[in-house]
Amino acid sequence: YHQWHTKETQLSKFNQTEIEAMLGSYTKVLFVRDPFHRLIATFLQGMGSSPSFSSFVEDVLDSETHSTSGDWKPLVSLCQPCLVRYDYVVMFGFHRQELGHLLRRAGLPVDSLLLKFTDTEVLWTYRWLTEQMFSELSIQQKKQLSRFYRWDLAAFPFSSSLLSD
């Protein structure tokens, strides 16, 4: 479907028939990450101008009614998993295992293309960091974040997310 490869690649710019044809012709992979981890990463990358994580979360919650940054916007609103039938959903923390499967399915060499980190190290670091950052938040902020990300938490198996509680 190279005739649709233009500078304007947002699906919303095409009609329903074109969208269905395009999506049917591609292997669709969705990479998902615990929304709270996404917030932490955005804060640590300096994407917010807040001096503390708690005030950054407050800014995010205040911006819920305004145009929200894609960095912390709920995944369900960004990738439309109820409308798009993804062939693969890859969870952060299982990249090595799941990407190996995808590469094998595509007939590509697995060992030379996989990331060099181990998922267990990444998961341990995020577990510790998540607990530290979560402890900075008020009960009200925790409840508001859980409500803000409720559709992500319902759509994806973030069973260990602190926002699920």
Taking strands numbered 1, 2, ... along the chain, how are they ordered across the largest sheet?
Answer: 1-2
Tally of DSSP helical segments: 9
User: What is the 3D shape?
Assistant: globular
Mean pLDDT level: 79
Number of domains: 1
The helix fraction, in percent, is 40-55%
Please describe the biggest sheet, giving its number of strands, its sense, and whether it closes into a barrel.
2 strands, parallel
If you compute it from the alpha carbons, what radius of gyration comes out, rounded to the nearest whole angstrom?
18 Å
Q: Give me the secondary-structure category.
A: mainly alpha
Q: Which stretches are poorly predicted, pLDDT < 50 over at least 5 residues?
A: none
Structure summary, number of beta strands: 2
Strand content: under 5%
How far is the N terminus from the C terminus?
A: 44 Å
| Strand/helix succession | HEHHHEHHHHH
GO molecular function: sulfotransferase activity
Membrane topology: Single-pass type II membrane protein
GO cellular component, one term: Golgi membrane
Protein name: Carbohydrate sulfotransferase
